Amino acid sequence: MSKRLVAILVPFGLAILFVRFAQLIPELTTPQFESAKDYIMIRGYAETGAKNLVSAIYLDYRLFDSLFEAGILLITVAGIVFMAKSDEDVI
After folding, report:
1. Of 38, 77, 40, which is closest to residue 59 (Cα–Cα)?
2. Which end of the chain is more exposed for a tag (fewer CB within 10 A), N or C?
3. Nearest alpha-carbon partner for 13 in 2, 5, 23
């Protein structure tokens, strides 16, 4: 394929992708529920079984977020300790 043809087709292809994405934006940004508060107030006890909705949010809805956050913190601390031990060996 010649460079001239590629130079013509690539911008058109990108323009088509951009237009398609612009058409999807309203669909992607429309909330499914009126608000998160209403969703949790209505379905929180049934989905989690927790009487305290704050505990339901923290321990059920955000459980994986909290676990991965703790894992990343552990990996960071382990990396810092490893680098600190490496620096002592060099000196």
Report:
1. 40
2. C
3. 5
Residue 53: pLDDT band by 50, 70, 90 thresholds? confident
Q: What would the mean pLDDT of 45-74 be, rounded to a whole number?
A: 85
Q: Which two tokens stand for residue 27?
A: 């669909």
Q: Look up the pTM and report it.
A: 0.40
Does residue 78 carry a pLDDT above 90? yes
Residue 26 and residue 74: Cα distance in Å, rounded?
39
Q: What is the DSSP string of 28-84?
A: HHS-SSS-HHHHHHHHHHHHH--SSHHHHIIIIITHHHHHHHHHHHHHHHHHHHHHH
